[in-house]
Description:
Residues 27-109 form the ACT domain. The protein has helices spanning 38-48, 79-88, 107-120, 125-133, 178-196, 222-231, 234-241, 250-257, 302-316, 332-339, and strands spanning 26-32, 52-61, 64-72, 92-98, 137-142, 156-160, 165-170, 202-205, 211-216, 263-269, 272-281, 286-293, 321-325, 343-344, 352-356. The chain is an alpha+beta fold. The chain is elongated and about 90 Å long.
Amino acid sequence: MQVVDVPETWPTPVEQEVEVTDATTWRLRIRMDDRPGMLARIAIRMADLECNILGLTVLPVPGGVLDEIVIRPATGLTKEQLVRAIQDEGCECSAIADADVRELVDASAATLTAASRAVDDPSRYADVLREVLAADLVTVVPLAEANPGRSEGGHRAAFAVDGTTALVARRRWAPFVQLELARAEALLGLLDAVRADVSRPAVATCSNGAALVLRQGLPGDTDAVAALHERCSAQTLFQRYHTGMRTMPRRWLHRLLMPPRGMSLLAVCGHEVVGLGQLIPGSGELAEISLLVDDAWQRKGVGTALMARLAVIAAARGHRRLMAVSLPGRDGIFRTAVRAGLAPQQPEEEGLLRIDIPAHLTPRVPGRI
Length: 369
């Protein structure tokens, strides 16, 4: 999505004299010195003008404070008259915009509510950020086109979402202040932390409609994993272990479930373990993975679900590439990686398959770019 250019000169925040109805609500931003009595003077002047103050937020800014006040003005009062009254008290009205009384909620509560919606649906990041910043527009752009140095006098801010995209926020009626930007950064950081929280079980659906739970293997899963190996054919076991073993010695099961330097991931349907994956950290940003899927559950998406989840876990742990062993003439692991949305390279002569983890799976560093 391309960034829409905005005018170099922003419209003045004080509009022409237009009478309003009783239902009109205005949002004002008033810059004033941070000293006792200033807010009281503004409140008294608004009372004299028969304005009803509905909400107040104090935003610290360099050299003073910026008070955001939501009012219901008296019938017949114009924005220009209100601005002159504020100026007479030695303050500056930097912006006036029409508001909605439905926006009058506690800022912290509103931010938490918005965060919960984004957790449920990550595709709503832009809508949630627009709401939290009271922005006019938030667009999703390629990271290379975000142009973070273009602030347009504080009316524009860019935030990295992942390694490939960014959110660009614009607001004509008032510049963003640091407190608002910090709130937005904290929100996006929280959403990233939730996205990177891979300790929770995940749910996947197979091509046959069966629901799987993907969770970390535990010592109590020994019997279920032993049963998985007993159901697997000799060919399936050979592709996984590259030996002619027919059964898994029980003394090895604990090491499979709880590898000393890594972790295991189980695909569970009901009470039955139908797939087993492993993630073993390697050197640097490399991690090794392996998969074993029950013969009866192969080609139903179990291996794809396991590999996709292992990639998310690996990315959260700082890995950027996976490695697997692909036997000569066997491209099953390659095709599984492609179906999982990963980027496998062609297998090397010794059978090693290197799989790049896409940037969108990598948790971003919270903060504005």
